Amino acid sequence: MPSEKEKARILAGRRFIRYEDDGDDHDPSDQQLKLPQPPLVKAPMATTAIDLPKNYRDLKLNGDILDILFKRESHRVFTDAPMTLLTLAYLLWATQGIKSIRGQNYATLRTVPCGGARHEFETYLIIRHVEGLEPGAYHYLPMTHQIEYLGAVNRLDERIETSLSGQAWAATANVVFYWSVLPYRSEWRYSAFAHRIILVDAGHVCQNLYVACESAGIGTCAVGAFDLKTSNALFGLDGEDEFVILAAPVGTVSAADKAKEDAFYAFLKNES
Description:
Blueprint: H1 4-18, E1 50-51, H2 65-71, H3 85-96, E2 98-102, E3 107-110, E4 121-127, E5 136-141, E6 146-151, H4 156-163, E7 175-181, H5 184-190, H6 194-216, E8 218-220, H7 228-234, E9 243-252, H8 255-271
Antiparallel strand pairs: 1-6, 2-3, 4-5, 4-7, 5-6, 7-9, 8-9
Helix pairs in contact: 3-6, 4-7, 5-6
């Protein structure tokens, strides 16, 4: 049985996700106060950026959504085969790609839904084995569909494992996605209600990664157990106005394992 202290933590968590309004009057949000909205995206962090390709159809993706949903699962075993830059570009676009901009830079419409179109996340990467890219830390620039190289990471595999709370399998991935949140992007509109929305929005982003990976024949596994300080330090995040909220290692998977999975899920699909 959990201790009284742990029970209190559990109940506090339940109250948070319920967000029961206490009926008191709330202060107006900064949007209602007509304060300037925060930037739609984070400014570039480096002096140069790498253009990403957009010819996604060259990947010969699986376009059968029923097949993709049947086969989608978490992968924790990856091969040493390299990942192409086009594949990485596709995954970045699928999870945070910008399709259009509303108004005078008022909001971005992206490939994922988001409360109030606030899109409060930034995408960071630790790259291990992607063709044409140096291993190290990167940041995605969705407005221009580019990535910027933030620098080398000493003891890269060890740092990945440590940042993800000792999960050694993650250090065999081709690339690890780390999503940070800038809460004020959502707080500007939703004030104290923003934080519940943020958690839902994070799920939208990660689910698109799962679907995109399955369509491209590669694997991923979402990771909620990570060391916050270590993860933030990888990308120089302050931990207050911006901090890591979710991670997902992504890697190539063996043809033999995929063949077994395909046969199994074909059976399930036929049975349905």
